[in-house]
Amino acid sequence: MADKYKIGTRENREFLEQTLENLLQFGHRFPSPGGGSYWLGDDGTPWKDRPRETWITSRMTHVYSIGAFLGHKGSEELVDAGLKGLQGELRDRKNGGWYSGITSEGEFLPLKQCYAHAFVILASTSAYLLGRPGAEELMREAADFFLSRFWDEDRGLTFDTWNTEFTELDSYRGINANMHTVEAFLALADAADDEIWRQRAGRIIDHVRGWAEENSWRIPEHFTSEWVPDLECNKDRPADPFKPYGATPGHGIEWARLITQYALSAYPGDQAQIVSEQAAPYIADAEKLYRRAVSDAWNADGAPGIVYTTDWEGQPVVHDRMHWTLAEAINTSAVLYHVTKETDYAEDYAGFLGYLDETVMDHENGSWFHQLDSRNQLLDTVWPGKSDLYHAVQSMLIPKYQADTSIAKAVKNRLFLE
User: What is the pTM of this model?
Assistant: First the structure.
């Protein structure tokens, strides 16, 4: 295995840094005149005929806030463009909150999504840490609005989808939106120095740990309005981009990292003990989630890569390889290695980076291929082009920074691993 894939080596740090710089350079053309993010094509050219969506605009604002901390030229202007979109064309001044997106003809997409609103919080916290104009107000407004419409205080979970006017709440409940709510709440706790948000993230996490344990560490994704798992949801549309049938191993891996971050930050250890007694059960569960997902999905069908979904026995259903699952595998294998010092995580990390470099990175046009088929050939049925940089950028950073802190604050404060 090449030294550049081995965690902690000088060559590995250089590989991460160069890949990160390429990614940041790739995404410069995302802002529309109104600030909403264009969907990017394979070479970074904006696809102006596609809707400009709130979740993508938020992700790009977050990414370039981090880019600014790293000194990437032009990042501040790109952050301000994203903030313009979130404060302007994507915001619903009449009904409150943020539209899902806006079409190229200027029509608003229907429905108000928890998923998108969680990313508005993430974007605004990162821009607030950067000190950009209007970011603090946006952060506080986004947080307050989220509590009023999407947070179910009684259950300690989120609602998923409203109609545009916030008069009808969809009966669907989902784990994906809750996962990104955990990420947003942890970032908000770190940025605003308010532990109530970390406590709320912990409430969500405790639900997920229970559901995962009851289901052989394969997390149910879809639920009824009473939070009863719907394990057959979308069995007839297994490749749905946001509500796929079965288990999504990439989410199991991503949850493992977020659970680890929460545990280390909520229950810090002392200098002699990185994992406190209170945090240890969370880390143990994170390891179970990670190992189950990797065992089910990594190189599971005779070719390299992580399959998109499996059934409830761990057999692949959708064999496509999504770039974000690989990014999260890089993140979580690195985090668990640093926390546990178990060498199999380092070996996984090296394997994931080798596959990234050899197969998933687009060395000709830049960025990463967002969807490959079971033979690792380019596919565009779910994720054509390269919508945003969020997962890929974070995976080039999280392996180098302390795992108890949200990535934007960790980069700002230079909280490097020793």
Answer: 0.98
